[in-house]
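Side project, low priority. Logging it here so it doesn't get lost.
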Amino acid sequence: MTEVKKPQMFYGTLSTVESFVKECKEYIEKKMKRETIEEQITWVLTCIAGGATDRWKKMILDDLYKELQEYAIIDEFFGEIRKKFGRKEKKKIWESLDKGLRGFLEDMKF
């Protein structure tokens, strides 16, 4: 059996979202393929910690426990990770910076 390493801890940084998802997928494919989606998600959540991730992680666990959220496949859950910590958040930051810069330039009357 091929050895597969556990993913690096994910702390919610944009630059590591895709590598974290990739490492988790590889691990699940090799070690947890027969586990339920809920067990796979719970395991992924053990690899997430700190900062903004703690609140989000607790919300996900609560929703799973209360059966308020279900995922048919693990990729749906990875989509949630990408949505929360990935590209969309970056886009919002750039839009905010762009709006602020335009306001600054207008105030400076260039």
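Brief comment: The two ends are 65 Å apart (CA to CA).
Revisit when time allows.
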